UniProtKB/TrEMBL annotation:
It comes from Mumia zhuanghuii. Residues 26-106 form the Acyl-CoA thioesterase-like N-terminal HotDog domain. Residues 135-147 have a biased composition (Low complexity). It comes from the Bacteria. This is Thioesterase family protein. InterPro entries: Acyl-CoA_hotdog (IPR042171), HotDog_dom_sf (IPR029069), Sec_Metab_Biosynth-Assoc (IPR052389), TesB_ACOT8-like_N (IPR049449). Residues 114-153 are annotated as: Disordered.
Length: 153
């Protein structure tokens, strides 16, 4: 099973509704038939930043309660605390009324041009050429589809 890669911005997009947000879980970001957790968290982050009006997630803590199926999901957000420079937002992803992922995020507006800071410095990245890596197929030897492998290098 090979799926054509789609832009992450497109497959993780959320749409505002009168009572929250909706999104579409894309089959290209699954292992077997279950979506990748980081992919789901990206959808929650988009809803959290939109609901609070800040562009950046500074911290996130998530609980994965039930894996949603490919298809539509709803996302509810609640601003738990509004601060001077950051807000705390709870975001819950549901499918057919069942909670799937619950996250609490601190969102803020980082200054443009600010560089990342790590106490111990940025980890060194080994140099590699694009062709040096091993390409893992999108299907396991037992035939289980892993379509997320067709999305990333």
């Amino acid at each position: 099973m090979t799926s054509r890669p789609r832009r992450f911005d497109d497959v993780s997009a959320v749409r505002a509704t009168d009572d929250g947000f909706t999104a579409q879980v894309d089959p290209g970001w699954c292992v077997g038939d279950k979506p990748n957790g980081g992919y789901l968290l990206a959808m929650l982050a988009r809803a959290a930043t939109q609901s609070a009006g800040h562009a950046h997630v500074v911290t996130a803590s998530a609980h994965f309660l039930h894996s949603p199926d490919v298809g539509p999901v709803e996302i509810d957000t609640v601003v738990l605390r509004k601060g001077r420079s950051a807000d705390h937002v709870r975001a819950t992803m549901r499918q057919d009324g069942r909670p799937c992922v619950e996250a609490v995020m601190m969102v803020a507006q980082l200054e443009q041009g600010t560089t990342p800071y790590w106490d111990r410095g940025a980890p060194s990245r080994p140099s590699s050429e694009r062709d040096d890596g091993v390409r893992v197929p999108g299907t396991t030897p037992t035939g289980m589809p892993v379509p997320i492998m067709d999305q990333v290098d």
